[in-house]
Predict the structure.
Amino acid sequence: MAEEKGEGPEDVDTIGIYVGGRNVEGERHGEGWAVLPNGDFYQGCYFQGMRNGKGLYVFKNGARYEGEWRHAMKYGVGHMTYPDGSRYEGDWRHDLKHGFGAYYYPNGDIYEGAWFKGKRHGLGTYFYAENQVKFMGTWVDGVIEGPGQIMYPRVRFHGSWYKGIPKGSGCFVFDTNCMQHGFYLLTKDPDYEELGEGEEEKEEKTANDERLEEGEEEIEVDETLGKVAVWRARNVTAYMAEFLPPEPVPLPVHDSIPSLALESIETDVLRFEPPSIAAEEGDDDNDSWLLHRQQFLEETEQRD
C-alpha cells in the first residue's frame, strides 16, 4: 500500500499555520504545531527547521503517524494507521518500515517480524485470520523464500518455499504423533494454459535464446509462472525431531554506506513528549508490542 510521505518541500515556506518555538535563525525549533498548506497537521518537535524527535502527523486522507522523526523522516519507533484501517507498529528508517514491526491488516491478518526498506524481509510470522492458520518462516524482498512451517489447527507442515510457493522435500506432523514425508513438485497449471497465458512463458524462453545468441546476459525466467505446487507423499513414520527439515533463521542484513553514515551522526536534538502522543505507562498494547520486539531480538542474537 502506498503512503504519503507528508508535507514535502512546502514545509520550508511560511505559508500555512505554525505555532511554536524558533531558533535565532528563525527556523522552527523545539515544540510546536503546524497546519500544512496541503491540509496535513503536525504536532511535535522540530530541530533546525525539520521534524526531529517525537511527534504526531495527521494526513488529510485520514492516515496518522505517532512516533519518532529524524531529518523530517519517520525514523525510530512509531505507529502508523492507514485510511483503510490497517496499521503498523514498529521500527522505521528513512520513512520506510525497517527493523522489527507488526502490520495489522483490515481482514484480520497479522504479520509480525523483520522488515527491510519497506518490505517484509527476514524472519517473521503471518497469521491468516480467515482459516486460523499461521506461517512462520523467512521473506526475501516481500516474498516467502526458504525454510518455514505452516501451523494448522491439528497438523503442521515443515518445508521450504520458493517465491511464495512450497517446493522440495518436507513433512506433515500430525497431532497423533506421526509424520508423513514427501515433497512438493511444481507442475503446470491446466487452468493457466487453458486461458492462453502459457504463451507468456514461451515468449520469455524465446527472448532469452535470442539474447544468448547475441552474447547478452540471460534474463531470469520465473519458474513458478503457470505452475502449481502438488504434494507427493513417500512414507509415514513415528514422530522423530531429527527427521524435521531445517528451521528458518534470521537473514543477514547489509546496510548501505549512506545509511550507516547517517546512524553515526550525533545531533543535539531537543525532544519532548506531548501528552496526546506519549505512550502512557501501563498501556497494555504498547507493553505487549515491546515484549514481542524484545523476544524477537533475543532469539536473533541467540541464533547468530
User: Anything to note?
Assistant: Residues 46 and 223 are 50 Å apart (CA to CA). Residues 1-14, 264-287 have pLDDT under 50 and may be disordered.
